[in-house]
Write a structure and sequence with these properties.
Elements (H helix, E strand, L loop, with lengths): L3 E8 L3 H14 L3 E8 L10 E5 L4 E4 H4 L5 H10 L6
Parallel strand pairs: 1-2
Antiparallel strand pairs: 1-3, 3-4
C-alpha cells in the first residue's frame, strides 16, 4: 500500500523544528510519511526556509511567504483542511 507523503524542505539549522513537526504529523496521521529535505548553508537572501508541501505539490505552509516558522498545530490543521484522514 502506498503511504501518502508530506515533504518538508528546511534549513539545517532548523532540524529540531523539523523533527517536532514530523513527529506531530506522524502521530496524528499514521497513514502519512514525512520526507525531510535538509538544505545546508542557510537560506538564500536571508529568508527563512521551511516549506511544507503535499506530495501533489500543494503548499501547506511557506516560511518564505509568512516570514516565520510554523507551529505543529497549524500544520495539522492545514493537513485536515486538505482532506487528509487521520486513519
Amino acid at each position: 500500500m502506498h503511504r501518502l507523503q508530506v515533504i518538508v524542505e528546511y534549513d539545517s539549522t532548523d532540524v529540531d523544528h523539523f523533527i517536532e513537526i514530523a513527529d506531530a504529523i506522524e502521530e496524528r496521521f499514521p497513514n502519512l510519511m514525512v520526507n525531510g529535505e535538509e538544505t545546508e548553508g542557510g537560506p538564500a537572501e536571508g529568508k527563512l526556509l521551511f516549506e511544507v508541501k503535499a506530495e501533489d505539490g500543494r503548499v501547506l505552509f511557506s516560511a518564505r511567504q509568512t516570514g516565520r516558522l510554523p507551529d505543529s498545530g497549524e500544520i495539522l490543521d492545514a493537513l485536515t483542511a486538505a482532506g487528509v484522514s487521520e486513519s
